[in-house]
Design a protein that fits this description.
This protein folds into two domains: 134 residues, Rossmann fold (3-Layer(aba) Sandwich), CATH 3.40.50; 64 residues, ACT domain (Alpha-Beta Plaits, 2-Layer Sandwich). The chain is 29% helix and 26% strand. A hairpin with a 5-residue loop joins strand 4 and strand 5. Helix 1 packs across helix 2.
Length: 226
């Protein structure tokens, strides 16, 4: 319950970054869902925004709550995106993708003037890597990528859905959850994965976050890059 209260507090604090007329990236995950619901309350009170969701799940939630939506066919610049993270370090490097939306989340983040990360205190780490790094792969290359990632020192594990079948992303790909342990150089690992054929995305978000709003108890701390 305390964790849920922290998530909601962080999400509520993020609303100050949203202005009337903004295009807003709508993140995926439990903390981002609080932000979507809170934004919907503002919309019902007269706030005029257009949202670009980072997943089918978020699109369905936002549409059900009455948030007007748009696409990159109509706008290519996002004013602010509000999203969660699975881990963040003192440089605001992130691991994301626990919810399976990492590819679209990174596309939306890259098009955003500001990426505001909302998180509870459990997501703060000194070194990334305790959370397994999601790597989205083309199914055709899954075994090949798994072997190459293992050669980097990780333990890759195919993500499965509740029925035991491979988890399928919104783009029709699979996810390898890769246990690297402490990641000494996240930017270097990101570059290595970016260059690996068959990898279409990974959960290392480097130099994308503008600010992290971290809730601890009832207090929300605004954290900038060190």
């Amino acid at each position: 319950m305390a964790n849920d209260e922290e998530k909601e507090a962080a999400a509520r604090a993020s609303l100050k970054f949203v202005r009337d007329g903004n295009v807003v990236g709508l993140g995926t995950g439990s903390t981002a869902a609080y932000a979507v619901r809170l934004l919907a309350e503002r919309v019902r009170s007269g706030l005029k925004i257009r949202g670009i969701p980072t997943s089918s799940r978020t699109r369905e939630l936002a549409a059900s709550l009455g948030i007007p939506l748009t696409t990159f066919d109509k706008v290519q610049q996002i004013d602010v995106t509000i999203d969660g993270a699975d881990e963040f370090d003192p440089q605001l490097q992130l691991i994301k993708g626990g919810g399976g939306a990492l590819l679209r989340e990174k596309i939306v983040a890259s098009a955003s003037r500001q990426l505001v990360i909302v998180a509870d205190a459990s997501k703060q780490v000194q070194v990334l890597g305790e959370f397994p790094l999601p790597v989205e792969v083309v199914p055709f290359a899954q075994a090949l990528v798994a072997k190459r990632v293992a050669a980097l020192g990780a333990t890759p594990k195919l993500r499965r859905d509740a029925g035991g079948n491979p988890f399928v992303t919104d783009q029709g790909n699979h996810i390898l959850d890769c246990g690297f342990g402490a990641i000494a150089d996240p930017p270097a690992l990101a570059r290595t994965l970016d260059a690996m054929p068959g990898v279409v995305g990974h959960g290392l978000f480097i130099n994308l976050a503008s600010v992290v709003l971290m809730a601890r108890g009832s207090e929300v701390q605004e954290i900038r890059r060190q």
